[in-house]
Design goal:
The complex is a heterodimer of chains A (about 220) and B (about 625).
Chain A lengths: L25 H28 L8 H4 L14 H27 L2 H31 L12 H33 L2 H5 L3 H26 L1
Helix pairs in contact in A: 1-5, 1-7, 3-4, 3-7, 4-5, 5-7
Chain B lengths: L1 H6 L5 E2 L4 E2 L5 E2 L11 H6 L4 H31 L6 H7 L10 H37 L7 H21 L29 H30 L12 H32 L10 E2 L2 E2 L7 H35 L6 H14 L15 H13 L1 H15 L8 H23 L2 H7 L3 H31 L5 H27 L19 H31 L41 E3 L2 E3 L16
Antiparallel strand pairs in B: 1-2, 2-3, 4-5, 6-7
Helix pairs in contact in B: 3-5, 3-6, 3-17, 5-7, 5-8, 5-9, 5-15, 6-7, 7-8, 8-9, 8-10, 9-13, 9-15, 10-12, 12-13, 13-15, 13-16, 15-16, 16-17
Classes of the chains: A mainly alpha (about 220), B mainly alpha (about 625).
The complex binds protoporphyrin IX containing FE and copper (II) ion.
Copper (II) ion binds next to α9 of chain B.
Amino acid sequence: MTESSLTMSVKPNVWQGGFSPFRISWGKLMMWYFLVGDSFSFGAFLITYGALRFSYESWPLPTEVFKSFPFLENVEVPLGFVSFMTFTLIMSSVTMVLAVHYGNAERNRYKVAKWLAWTIVGGLIFLSSQAWEWTHLITHGMTMKHNPFGAPAFGWLFFTITGFHGFHVFTGVIINIIILINVLRGVYDRRGSYEMVEKVGLYWHFVDLVWVFVFMAFYLL
Amino acid sequence: MAHEMQTAVSSPVTDHVHFQTVEGEIREPEHIPHHKENFVTKYIFSQDHKTIGKQFLFTGMFWAFVGGLLSLIFRLQLGYPGQSFPILETLFGKWAAGGIITPEFYYKLVTMHGTLLVFFVLTAGLSGTFANLLIPLQCGARDMASPFLNMLSYWFFFAASVVMLISFFIPDGAADGGWTFYPPLNGLREASIGSRAGADYWLIGMALFIISSLLGGLNYITTVLNLRTKGMSMNRLPLTVWALLITAILGLISFPVLLGAAILVLFDRNLGTSFFLDEIFIGGRHLDQMGGNAILYQHLFWFLGHPEVYIIILPAFGLVSEIIANNARKPIFGYRAMVLSMLAIAILAFVVWAHHMFVTGLNPFVASVFVFLTLLVAVPSAVKVFNWLATLWQGNIRFTPAMLFAIGFVSLFISGGLTGIFLGNSALDIPLHDTYFVVAHFHIVMGVSAFFGMVAGVYHWFPKMFGRYMNHTLGYVHFWITLVGAYLVFWPMHYMGLIGLPRRVWSLDAYQNFSMYGDMNRFMTDAAMLVFFAQILFILNFVYSIFWGRKVTVKNPWQSNSLEWTTEIVPGHGNWKGPIPTVYRWPYDYSKNGDDFIPQTEPYRPGEEKLHH
Ligand code: HEM
Ligand SMILES: [Cu+2]
């Protein structure tokens, strides 16, 4: 590439063509738009939740349903475990921010790998916690059809929506692992950009953000 | 090595198709890497947008043929009730015992006809073909932003097609609960024969279809936004590109909602949940599945469903605008109004869905809000119609087959749009809902119109796709039979609907009142056969012309201004041999200052006035 082609004479308007109007690559743009679309499928689920929830006269009390903690047999900690899960997920977003930062600002392969690995650990902890919680509820009789705590709708909505979210976390972890391998192999050093880490970072933060709404729906309201 | 790389912070982010810096400027490498291609990468797992466009077109045409054939079979039943056609028994066995199709089979036919035509032909076949072919070529890009995802988009569509096709051949047959797939009919395995395995196939096929359409749409949007060539500002984009961009945005926002709804129906059917089920008796037995809400499904469905009808019609708007301006040899009238009206339609498309639900017990006050918003759609629609007519007005018109179909489109869109205004009034809709009036409305305004837009596009861009022309004489025959025939089929349906003839009924013998329409129904069936026959002419013309059509010898056979005609006659991967051209003007400088046309790549001459800013 010649030096002269590096300077565009005038840039009166970023919409003139030959230019990315938002100053981001198509890849990142595509990720943003994907997230817009994905938020609408979550939207469909959460609206379903809302519509059913408010057509019921009585609804299970979250503090009654979610009060167990692994390894603590006879203690009741209402919403204790889910607070731990939420905390883990939010922390994994923080570690993701660090991974993206060290990729963009320093291109430091080892630091990126380190923080990405922590993010994966966070995701795995979240997923195993969810697995424990599901198993616990199922053994206490809450299924897609029945719910000993009250309205059966609570059960099927809970499993469907947290399941859909868990599926997102799961794919996020898989993608993060692939990216981690690429980081370690130096793919992004050779490419001269760690943008890939940033893109999966966007996805990860989105999955986190959605959890806040899912959490609100089932555990707080 | 890694340490040296770390210092080059501002070096460009690259991939093999487009070279783009972090700051947003798009640059190309000196040498575009050329991959050796073999048969498989060139024609099957191709990443070239033009080939992918053709794949969508071929698959879409296949489904159009199948879907059209299905409608002929059920039209036979409507036109000739009680009459035996032994050939049907030969072909379909128990589904047409005694040569008369069974009610179950009738519902399968109607359901699959709707599904295939709405989604597989007029969504994937139309957007998939023309977004792929035209977006990179008319924006001035080497390919889509992500050729790989673009290829996946086609193969998901292919997989969806395979699933739908298989569903015809399973023992209980395909789904039969209507293209809108309302529960509880479709939410319970026991509800009907088609609600057994067929409905699961339908849902899985649709889920794959939605993934395909999202992968495609993401590419279309990012390509238009990020990869326009120098000088191709948004207000110099051909209206086709605008239309396809807005279509993709509509799809991105609405299809995920249908995906959600489809998953929930799958769960109701297979996991025992009751999202959409409540208080149902089957054979006197009260079902355990309780506590859901069937109307909720309709809200989710129509939140997609209404934007979907615009996903179908907007690409046709774009193609028709382009073809009309080109063949009237006149600048498109009201370019900006055309863009703004499409945006207005797109926004309104998300706030009118409940006009499909006026008789579901919707609160009358809420209904009145939806009436108001629905009738607002008439304003931008009328703006578009007037602009097309004004573009045609005193034009130096070349009546190519593409142009005829484009003009036919305008006629159909007006006819069908007018009946929309009837239906949009909730009070009028109460008697009209679920009658043949609705069938007439949406076939004319959407089905036949969008089909006309698509066919016009095929005639017009055929030279770009295959380097040959289609036969024009056959094209004229095709046009006149289709236009007249389509009106003959669908116009009488309005009157039948007005006196209350219900849609989705296997035999009208059950209603004394409607026997007076027996002759009319027979006539419509005959007209439908004629129209179908004309489409076979089209397919023959299409296939023949690919191999033996008259060869295109000039780069710009239609004397058009837009960029796709600056490439080689049949462009290779990468589209332009040399550098991508720069754009200096809008694409509608026709008949200006004594010039018949001035391509977008020509700089303004000294003193030349701008027709458009
Ligand atoms: C002036 C503009 C329009 C208005 C006011 C309008 C209004 C309506 C209304 C109220 C219905 C529901 C009728 C019922 O089921 O009782 C309807 C049905 C329908 N409309 Fe339109 N419409 C308009 C334009 C269009 C356009 C442009 C398209 C497609 C390109 C379209 C496609 C459909 C379809 C597919 C249905 C029937 C769906 C079904 O029940 O199977 N309409 N329209
Ligand atoms: Cu509608």
